[in-house]
Design goal:
Helix content is 37%, strand content 21%. The protein has 335 residues and is of the alpha/beta class. Strands 6-5-4-3-8-7 form a 6-stranded antiparallel beta sheet. Strands 9, 10, 11, 12, 13 and 14 form a 6-stranded mixed beta sheet that branches.
Length: 335
């Protein structure tokens, strides 16, 4: 009878751990999340180190903890697939990924007096691939921390060294287009990716049954452009003229820009790209343009300023030439 009871208790514990939830956190009582559970490491050792890193403010403490981790721990991908707590990571002076990195950061912040909740996420693109039985290269997720500082809950990404001040714990889609699916105070009980096979089993079960209406739109599920697309590089008032020209010719202008070329030029690929030009000189530096569209400058040698690079049509619209043509017509009329 006793053996059966023990087995039953173990099974109940397993069921509890295998059911991710984001609704079990008592956000109104932050001090509940100062507790450092036994599975995460030796409390005295954690607290001793944490107090050395305590700053003049909670944000200063977070900065000092992250800096200390950078100075004392190195990344080792081989350590990403088995459970390690604070004591293990410190002894080996390395972390295997965001899970044990988040564990160390979280317990140190708790030890310094900052309430912490661990947040498990999976990339939205991975979730859609998994649910639609599409092939994926990796199990792609991330671990964040919810931290109570300045009398409010904020979101901390220890790996990116970033804290998000304007944050609601009700938010499910987190930075990097990641879906939050499990929150808690005991990462081992939650099952992290460090518990690799068990974590994959839990994650598979959860997302197989997830209501798809909770997710953002799946772009990989198929899209169809209802209008031809165009991008415009120009300054005011020229970009307005190019935009109007593209629109009147049946193009939807997706972006007008005159900075951040390395961000927006790749997005123009496969579409029409109109570029403000004066006396044969475009406003975008040619070396930057040709990094994304090799030999694009050949369009400047063509009478109509047009060149096709792959599936992208580039038009250098030389306003000086157009204005020169208008001036010549005026001169003819005066004569």
């Amino acid at each position: 009878m006793r053996t059966c009871l023990i087995v039953l208790l173990l099974c109940v514990g397993m069921v509890h751990a295998s059911e991710p939830s984001v609704d079990s956190v008592d956000y109104a009582t932050p001090n509940k999340y100062l507790e450092i559970v036994h599975s995460l490491g030796t409390n005295a050792r954690i607290t001793s180190q944490a107090l050395k890193l305590k700053g003049d403010s909670d944000l200063a403490t977070i900065q000092k903890v992250l800096k200390w981790m950078d100075l004392n721990l190195k990344y080792d991908a081989d350590r990403a697939y088995y459970w390690r707590n604070f004591d293990d990571v410190i002894k080996e002076k390395s972390y295997g990924g965001c899970a044990d990195q988040g564990i160390v950061c979280g317990v140190l912040l708790k030890g310094a007096g900052i309430p912490v909740i661990w947040v498990k996420t999976m990339d939205v693109s991975w979730i859609w691939d998994f649910k639609k039985n599409r092939e994926f290269k990796a199990w792609s997720g991330h671990v964040f921390l919810e931290v109570y500082v300045e009398k409010k809950w904020m979101l901390l990404d220890p790996g990116a060294k970033t804290i998000y001040k304007e944050y609601s714990p009700k938010t499910r889609i987190l930075p990097g287009n990641r879906f939050a699916y499990h929150k808690g105070n005991d990462p081992k009980d939650m099952i992290m990716s460090l518990q690799w096979e068990e974590w994959k089993q839990q994650t598979s079960t959860y997302f197989r049954n997830l209501d798809e209406s909770l997710l953002p739109v799946d772009p990989a599920g198929g899209t169809f452009l209802l209008m031809s697309q165009a991008s415009v590089i120009g300054n005011s008032p020229y970009y307005q003229a190019l935009t109007d020209m593209a629109t009147k010719n049946g193009f939807a202008v997706r972006k007008s820009f005159n900075t951040d070329y390395n961000t927006y030029l790749p997005q123009a690929k496969g579409h029409l790209l109109l570029i403000e030009t004066h006396n044969g000189k475009p406003i975008v530096p040619l070396d930057v343009l040709e990094k994304h569209f090799p030999n694009a400058s050949k369009g400047l040698q063509n009478f109509d300023g047009t060149v096709k690079i792959g599936k992208t049509t580039i038009v250098f619209f030389d306003f000086s030439r157009q204005l020169s043509g208008l001036q010549s017509e005026d001169d003819v009329e005066q004569k």
